[in-house]
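Morning run. Coffee first, then this:
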Amino acid sequence: MSGHSKWSTIKRQKGAADAKRGQLFTKLAREITIAARQGLPDPDSNTRLRLAVDRAKAANMPKDNIERAIQRAAGSGSGDQYEEVFYEGYGPGGGALMIQAQTDNRNRTVGEVRAVLTRAGGTLGENGSVGWMFDQMGLIEVPIGSADPDEIALLAIDAGASDVETEDGVLVVYTDPTDLHRTREALISAGHEVEAAQLTMRPKTLVEPELDAAVKMIRLVEKLEDLDDVQEVFTNVNVDDEVLAAAM
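And here it is:
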């Protein structure tokens, strides 16, 4: 799974540097609102909301914007009503795609997603067509620095982690969704920096298409994530150093 986690890390770092600030804040606000509507509008009592607020703070989203997004969830009778939906499909070379969107107009969003897929040589599938290839998991990224990665890994496992990987100086920790917050807090309490903590869709197995198809898949994912309604895109394509170098 190493190639997949490495690409996830690069996507996050690249997105923080390149994304249009307004679009980024809009997506973060939608996630906060949806998380608040799915549970209590209190980050201390709602794990998903807490993670969404942490991500917003990491992106330097103003505190007022965060509070307005939470308040929007409480005023369910006013404003745009966003819902979360997953689209499934295939990209160049047959790689699977799980596309997480948050939308107030499903017809608009599915039309935009289908258009991007079609132009890139991909296809939109039926619900369930590729979802079985992924597991929803918690994902935590911890810069190793001068620490012992084995010690961090053991700490994470004791706190609830189900798997760990090391990628370019970063320990990538996977957990059950319900154990994500507890594992994150244990790592922070032990003095380790947590660079990212979020829910993800982890592929059960990876596929390795030819180099050209793998690069096209990266380009497709970037185009999909540029859509206003798309929050995250997950794929089962293995992204190794050769693919990354060709795509840069």
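The first strand starts at residue 83 and ends at 90. Good start to the day.
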